[in-house]
Records
---
Amino acid sequence: MFFNLIVPIPYMNMAYIRTKKIKGNIYYYIVEGKLNKKGKVKQKVIKYLGNTSRILEIFDFYDKNHK
């Protein structure tokens, strides 16, 4: 006799970069998808990255100070 076993696979949280356009400016966030009790995915902001110029300033600072 063959039985189908349903084994729940734990939900793996995955982080990704999200963009938001606010008053014509684009901002970047690192967000994580989390399941709520109803099984729907809700976004949780992990880190605010800022706009493109701020991100480039951080990379330039890192390049100058970590050689």
---
Amino acid sequence: MRGCRGRHAFTLIELLVVIAIIGLLIALLLPAVQAARESSRRAQCLNNLKQLGIALNSYHDKFNVVVPACIADNKPLPVTSIAGQQWTPWTVMLMAELEQQVVTNAFNFDLGSYGPIALKMPGFSANSTVMTTKLSVYQCPSDRSLTCRFTGAYPGPPITGVAMSRGNYAANKGNTTWMQTDVPGNSNGVYRDSPFPNTGNLPFAALTDGVSSTVFVSEMLQGSDGDVRGLPWLTIPGANMYMSSFLPNNDTDILGLSKNGDVMMPGDLCVNEPGRNLPCKTGDLLNGAWINGARSRHPGGVNVLLGDGSARFVKDSINPRVWTGIHSIHSGEVIDANAL
């Protein structure tokens, strides 16, 4: 009777070699998988910007002006320090053009984001429920999705505890500071008009550099806790506007105003997170020299929206002159598209 032949088994060394090979293959494939996912997220982010471009152009078709940076409605009501104080930002005014009519109808535009009574903020109280609504068109999937909660002591009615939704898109505020004023002592510090001036409204015809050569919107990153960066509901420096004095994803502005990231208003409105590309420090409340830059989670650059509704990726290494040039509206620069 013939005996059965024993089955050959893996030795421990052979098993370890197989495990090592599998681990090596996973290590090789993982970056490719992550890159493919980020490519998809970046494409979705570009698509969001294109939707904003359609909405911006639709708003212009209706009213023959670029959507205002904010509404500063100076009504003759009891005001003591901040005139008007409605201060509803462009992101709220654009909601109807983004097919957010239900949210638009629920927003009290008579009171706006703050309301007409200085330091009492009845507009915030009236619209706080709307401000918790998350709008996917304002959300870049490459960034974390956070809410904003104020925790400091504020005068007037309590505004702490409201978990306002955030977003990732900011309007081009110009090349100097949030106040859009000249910066003395710097040859590049003369304010060049942006599509979103602090006062007045501009038609496309006023942009003599051409809407296809002018950046309207770029990306910004969402701050945490009470940090206002990425907040579409309030007109606060750094919330939903940015300055081209910072190159993309850079923490040193070209005007020499800051070497440590964004300059925000005092208080808990700035949460310094340099490890997450969100460096910031608090500035003087009175001088208005607040600045913040365009930032994203995409490796090597940011997505931007041009006035004609097209969107493209701009590298961090863009020439400062080109970056400043595509953010002004009638400076007469000749910009080569290959320089972007």
---
Amino acid sequence: MNRVMPTSVLAFALSPFLRLSGRFLIVFYIARRTLLTLLTLFLIGFVFFGAMSLSGHDMVDIMLAESEALGDGHTLISVQLAYLRAHLGLEVPWHAQYFRWPGRILRGDFGVTLAGRACVRALVMPRLRNTILLMSISLVVSMSAALALGVFFSMRAGSKADLVVTSFAVFLQPLPPLAVLLGLQIFAFRTWLFPVSGMPVPAMAPNLAAFALMYLHHIFLLVVANFIFTFGYSQRMAKMFMLDQIGQPYIVGLRSRGFSERRILFKHALHNVLSPLVNLGKH
């Protein structure tokens, strides 16, 4: 009885959470993967930070070496070095320094660069916004195309069109990313159809719609590059998942009950394909 009670109490306490996780499966999946990713990054950073501390040199030593190499004539005395280490928080052990870092990150303090002493946040945030937006658009485009073609040709497996699309996907998959990027950049430079550098700002357009079109024009080739990198594998996997679902006994049962092929495909089979395809997307 004593062994059963804690288990029952735990199951009762977790029952609301389990019901919510069942109803919002995608939300809880994304939250779980996000937490695991953050934990992994934290542990990787901890290991690397500890490994760098084994060198016996800190940021002040690097700054002093740069000053001596440049020969600017300024020599820091030991008192100044001690004050600088205290100001940078280098007087505490390395593990204490590392555990301070997540708190500073959460407050938006990313520190300054070693070269030029520029604010890291001011350098990173504009690029981070563009990167997140670019990857989001690329992911939606590539996964939507892969899913649509995978579902469409799963019903026409072996046809000439299926062989053409599958051959195209197989051709795209092994292409070297560097060669693709260089080829697209040369194409943009030779034709002047697309910009090769820079990003637009809202002040460059008269309204939001014009700015959106200008932005899409700037990132078009990058979206194409990401499409090339991900489409081949994603399309073949989507088709494989759909073919696997079509061969399941419940599909035969639904057909025997008179359900239309369209309803079976989009309401039942496609629903079961989305979960493994989301798992595929995280890789």
---
Amino acid sequence: MSWVSLVIAVVAVILALVLRPKPAQQTPPEFEELDIPTAKQGIPIPDVHGTYTVKSSNVVWYGDIAYEPVYTEGEGK
């Protein structure tokens, strides 16, 4: 009896895999369509007061990309 149920389960899994709907092919978005920060010259910088979501913002300054190592006193050897 257990072999019959095992065969039925395997057949059901195979049928589910074969008959499942295929996902639609999606084309990647063009670079201009992305809402990511850019760093271009000549783009106006928005003057925002309050809470507002700025899409496709222009990065003016991103801070110093440097680091300082942190040294701590270790315990044990």
